[in-house]
Amino acid sequence: MVKNERIIKFPVPDWKRLFSKEFDKITTCFCYQYDIDEGFYGPYGFDSSIAKKIINDFISDFLFYDVIERNLINVNNVYRNGLYVSSDGNPLGNEIESYSMAVKKNELRKRRGLNEIEVKKPMLLSMDSECKIPDKVIFHLINNHIPFFIVNGYMPEAGKSIMIFSDEVVERFLDVVRKYNVDICAVDNIDLMKSW
């Protein structure tokens, strides 16, 4: 095992909520702690060299939804809070691109005095904040079997944390963690972690 570094599994905290409590039972949270001393004190975050490798391997199949740009973008870290969705065969990027094109075409039609064509707004565009994920977006992703996770920061415990909503994605994440031989532990409550 890698010394002085670990992944900690914990339930969804009751504070700084990004989504409703109804998802708590299917959500698994993970944080990373490194430079841990004998008293289990150490900083949190995916900032050590091993943690960065874990994240880079894990998110290679995921895109970050940028609520400002209103687009899915490639990333190689989890520095930004918000929603990350699988890039593997899901239609979300195409839906956003098609919608943007249709809106532009409607602007041209309007200038020419033509009737606008009704365009269905993609579900992801209902997100207007990285700090609050609408339940309908989470339901949409789950019901359409689109792998995703959410990143949120918790202080003074946990730091940058990953919240995963399916056993399959949890196993993918833990497989990467095991590949790097990092210890995995669990706590029943975020308050049981040492503050940093």
Commentary on this structure:
The chain contains four helices and eight strands. It is of the alpha+beta class and 196 residues long. It has one domain (5-85, 127-192). It has an eight-stranded mixed β-sheet with strand order 4-3-5-6-7-2-1-8. The longest helix is centred in the middle third of the chain and has 20 residues, at 92-111. The protein is elongated and about 75 Å long. The two termini are 23 Å apart. 25% of the residues are buried.
Work out the number of β strands.
8
Question: What is the mean predicted local confidence, pLDDT?
Answer: 89
State the assembly state of the protein chains: single chain
- Please, how many domains? 1
Number of helices: 4
Point out poorly predicted stretches: none
End-to-end Cα distance, whole Å, is 23 Å
Helix content: 25-40%
Main structural class: alpha+beta
Residue fraction in strands: 15-25%
Shape: elongated
User: What is the N-to-C succession of helices and strands?
Assistant: EEHEEEHHEEHE
Rg is 19 Å
Reported for the largest beta sheet, the result is: 8 strands, mixed
Spatial order of the strands forming the largest sheet = 4-3-5-6-7-2-1-8
